[in-house]
Amino acid sequence: MKVGLITGQATLELLEFAEPEPAVDGVVVDIAYCGICGTDVHAYQAGARYNPAICGHEWFGTLSAVGAEVTGLTEGDDVVVAVPPACGRCEACVAGHADTCKAVLMTQIGAGVGAAPHGGFAPRLGVHAGRVMRADPGLSPIEAAQVEPATVTFHAVRNSGLTLGDFVIVQGAGPIGLLTAQWARAGGAGRVMAIEPSEARRTLALSLGVDVAVTPGDDAGETARELTHGLGADLVYECVGRPETVQTAVDLTRRGGSMCLIGLADAMAPIDPTQWLMKEVRVTAALAYTHAEFEACMGMIADGRVDVASLHTSTIGLDDLPATMATLADGTSTDTKVLVDPNR
């Protein structure tokens, strides 16, 4: 079968892999949709080492085979990609920090024991049973394929210290920023402002509940100051993932405010530590999620509190993946969220 893998800088190849068989503690998932993540795009741009198991890590599908030792799952189950519960054995778990379980982290970055040889840009995928969770029946396939990035942002907002009435700025209105803005609204933010260069994405942000959407630059800072009577944002979510926007997030934050780092920059970030110190800014960061957060996230998408379906702008087949990745990487794409249907 053909599988899409990033094999170098600006290089995505369709390679041949054998059909997967389930391990005794594993399953085989027939992939219905797999989303293209900003992390995939960054890896394509940089050509840096990228674990093949997470090249295509936002997927939804149906179980076509279940290993002999797997319980609680059966063939025909619709499933989303997830992470297992905390292992209970690693240093973090033993110390009482199950929410930062090392085994779960390894799974998240595709480096755990039994990591798959490729990700979800494939018709089928064999994975450990702990990597899947039954999809909420209230989700459409398009929604289910976006549970993984939605859970990333749910985790970020949940841990960011958001309080009722906060003035929130979201830097970047791509899929991660648009989801973050919605979770912030659901979590009680008073006003939400998005900063995004794309007019289409600014318009989409406004339709999804953002109060103000502006372009990057000095005018964005001026608008924030006007809306906060010169104070600055209570909380800024950095969702762009570029080195220079880390400092920009702090620039927009009020003294005593908070910045949450979500976007993954692929180089060292130039910062002004004196400003961070003078502002006494609080910083949180979010890489991924916990097992329990998947369940909570799916329920809130299913009941309409967060709209993921509106982010989806196109569906492509595997043969179109190399060209689509190239346009996403060079900035010429007009898409927000692209899903890959490997059977198309």
Describe what is shown at a glance:
By secondary structure, the protein is of the alpha/beta class.
Report on the structure:
- It contains twelve helices and 15 strands.
- With 344 residues, it is of the alpha/beta class.
- The protein folds into two domains: 200 residues, Alpha-Beta Complex (Quinone Oxidoreductase, Chain A, domain 1), CATH 3.90.180; 126 residues, Rossmann fold, CATH 3.40.50.720.
- Helix 10 links the parallel strand 12 and strand 13.
- Helix 5 crosses helix 11.
- It is globular.
- The mean pLDDT is 95.
In the predicted model, the low-confidence regions spanning at least 5 consecutive residues are none
How many domains, in number, for the residues?
A: 2
Structural class comes to: alpha/beta
**What's the CATH architecture name of the largest domain?**
Alpha-Beta Complex
Strand element count:
15
Mean pLDDT over the residues: 95
The CATH superfamily of the largest domain is identified as Medium-chain alcohol dehydrogenases, catalytic domain
Strand content range: 15-25%
Radius of gyration: 20 Å
**What is the CA-CA span between the terminal residues?**
13 Å
Order of helices and strands: EEEHEEHHEEHHEHEHEHEHEHEHEHE
Helical coverage, percent range: 25-40%
The CATH topology of the largest domain is Quinone Oxidoreductase, Chain A, domain 1
The total of helices stands at: 12
